[in-house]
Amino acid sequence: MSRLQGKVAVVTGSGSGIGQAIAERLAQEGADCVVDYRDHVEEAQATVDKIVAAGGKSVLVHADVSILADCTNLIEQAWQQLGSCDILVNNAGIEIGADFWDVTEKDFDAVMDVNFKGAFFLTQAFVRKLRDAKKPGRIINMSSVHEDMVFPHFSTYCASKGAMRMLMRDLSVELGPLGITVNNIAPGAIATPINTKLMADPKLLDPLLRNIPLGRLGKPEEVAGLAAFLASDDAAYVTGSTYVMDGGLMRNYKEQ
Ligand code: BGC
To answer: What average pLDDT does the segment 1-24 reach?
Structure first.
């Protein structure tokens, strides 16, 4: 399938987990891709290798998405080295668990800066270039079921994802006339490094699995398939929506 032939994508947090799977899948569908890394260049290089193996071109760029200049540079590198930037996947994300009354300013800033401020200004840089070039584009945000559903002891994470939900809705209206679509993917529990602690501890994992009607964690490749759809012409008329992929978790209210 080459639904994305001739397209260029920036996928943040593409050194591991969902981001890595998305970069690889977009390349399999024909896109070239900018891969970023903050700390782990070797992991990001593995993503580049996968993209090249899939027949795509790839550029590796150091970026901390919580720094505005790094966001602008990521988009600039896509245009300079790959000739365009048509698809932006705001995937980089972190979570720090704490009781609400113990949340520090440092942890609040860390979560909001990566999950929300980074996505906000990266999107701004992405849109400015497309507007100047008069080209259409696709924005796909990696949100979470927690843009809607409570996650006690993760108030900063929930706040960042709730903000991303409203940003997506707002931008779908503001950017529609530019031919730019904006959608969120809201994964439930996916088997990625963000869930390392959860996956290693049956006391945490077993109750969660009992709450997931499909009885398992999701796979990064499954999220990547949805991202590829949203990036493709098949989703040309889709904007302003959140796509939940959670094995039924959100719908599973139960009286214990
Ligand atoms: C979080 C995971 C959590 C999952 C389901 C995700 O957004 O990153 O830590 O397991 O939601 O609650």
So the answer is: 96
- Asked, for residue 119, whether it belongs to a domain, the answer is yes
pLDDT digits 0-9 by tens, 109-141:
999 999 999 999 999 999 999 999 999 999 999
CATH number at residue 165: 3.40.50.720
pTM above 0.90, yes or no: yes
The CB of 17 under 6 Å from ligand 1? The reply is: no
- Catalytic annotation present for 253: no
Of 157, 237, 243, 253, which is the active-site residue?
157
Is 230 among the domain residues?
yes
- Starting at the edge strand that comes first in sequence, how are the strands of the sheet with 137-142 ordered? 58-62, 32-37, 8-11, 87-90, 137-142, 180-187, 242-245
Q: Which residue, by CA, sits nearest to atom 9 of ligand 1? A: 195
